[in-house]
Amino acid sequence: MLVNRNITVGDLRTSVRLEPQFWTALTDIATREGLSVDELCTLIDAHLGELGRTAGIRVFIASYFAADREARSRVRFENTVRPVPAFTPAQPAARRAFG
Question: Per-residue pLDDT tens for 25-58?
């Protein structure tokens, strides 16, 4: 079931239809990155390329968590002797996902 929500992208008020799990993920990412959902959607929108807004949000969410998982794997591999530190990206992962 798709959930329709209003968001503000830059100065544009629009609506997006996503599955509830994607809304939860988007909210979680925004919280982790210290952004509002609108600010995060504005950042995503700036990097859409050929994608539509809804597809771009879905691709971003998948990319974000893939980058996060890869970074945590690297930390575990590089720190086989020491305990693994908490994942704290040098650059917010929201910005790295499109970098």
Answer: 999 999 999 999 999 999 999 998 899 999 999 9
pTM of the model: 0.71
CA 54 and chain centroid, separation: 13
What span, in angstroms and rounded, lies between the C-alpha atoms of 20 and 83?
35
Cβ-contact 80, 92 below 8 angstroms: no
Tokens, residue 52: 């539509």
Question: Which CATH number is correct for 3-96, 3.40.50.720, 1.10.620.20, 1.10.3990.20, 3.30.450.20?
Answer: 1.10.3990.20
Q: Tell which residue, 36, 61, 57, 37, has the closest CA to residue 48.
A: 57
CA angle, 42 then 15 then 65, to 5°? 50
Give the model confidence (pLDDT) of 66-76 as tens digits. 887 777 777 65
